[in-house]
Amino acid sequence: MAGLFLRIYGLSTESLWLDEGFSVWHSKTDIPLIIKAASSDVQMPLYYILLHYWMGLFGDSEFSIRFLSVIFGLLAVFLVYKIGDVLFNKETGIISSLIMAFTLFQIYYSQEARLYSFMLFLSLMSVYFFILTMKSSKLKHTFPYIISTALLVYTHFFGWFIVIFQNLYFIYAVFFQAEKRCKIKFWVLSQVTILVLFAVWIPILISQISGTIGGKFVYWIPTPNILSVIFSLVEFGSLGGIFVFFALLFHFRSELFQTENYRKILRREKFCLLFLWLFAPVLLTFLISIFLANIYTTKYIIMASPALYILLAKGVSSLKPNFKKIAIAAFIALSIANLYPYYTTVEKEQWKEAVGYINGNAKAGDMVLFDAWYVQYGAFNYYFNRADVLASQFLEGGIVPPNFERFWVVRSHALIPDLIEKLSKKYKLLENRSYFGVELYLFEK
Prior knowledge:
The protein is built from 20 helices and five strands. It is α/β, with parallel strands linked by helices.
């Protein structure tokens, strides 16, 4: 219940920001156009198709389109419990789900109308049934594993990092556990089936990868360094998770320097699975960013975060009862303290307020121009409701179209350098209003 409350509270308080606006814009088109748009970008189409039908049933209010992510965020909390239980015990599962329910990183993406909560849910489905399949190759486990994994890679191409981690673990299991070798043919067949299900998108994926390496799609992502990996792990855990980590580090400090303990961990398949799950997506993304193209951003590797929560939960569950209660209480208290500024400060671009001001103050015949063309098709159009005001792009080189006495300039994710300074020399600046992530300027000829 706490996880539900934390994900619903303030769900529609803030404006949609640029990427959420794109989610709505993409999803409002017909299915063939959604697929075409995804194939010409670096997107996968499944989430947008799902959101398309969701909006058809429940409308496109801020609450409605974000509530879809809330649902998958809550299902993810439940699946983390199931994985912690099947790997260790119910207590570990409960603590894992508690960590996930209260962690700011998870709450943020459960309240955003983007694909990350859905991708996390499908990742957990894939991992859960993968674990069950490794225990028993029954069709009731293998079939949902194949389907959830296929859906995952149709949601985001980073889903393939989950497939890579699973294959790395399978190789480890076959090498160290003789009883797993009888599963080789079965495993190969399951992987081939996933590839066959994805086959229709493989030529498109190759084109998307080529465009990514060429810098066409991810020009906005900076080159990472080792601190980027550390910051991602910190962001995964948020304030409460950081406390639990260092508390466990201090509690087990004497055991950290015993080499034999690391050898025991390496021989324990459950810990190897969790470490591969946590670090394979993170390190693969990091290495690709260093040597091929900058694709490293923490939200893209959200599917690795549950492994950290389960590891932390296992550590907490191994504490003595009194220490365990203190650790859990401190985690909850710090998590709530971490959440307070999230709920009380502006986190997303204020398109609702900025566009609302234009709606209320523009004169008939005014024009709205955009520094970055793509912001018009994101959140701006979601809020804009003036049929007597034309919204358009600048002409090439930032030239204002003729025949307009007054025009508004919307600056967000700016592309044209020194635009306002250049316009101020030619036109009279009547007004300037600043919102979080959005600037408005009104000029008169």
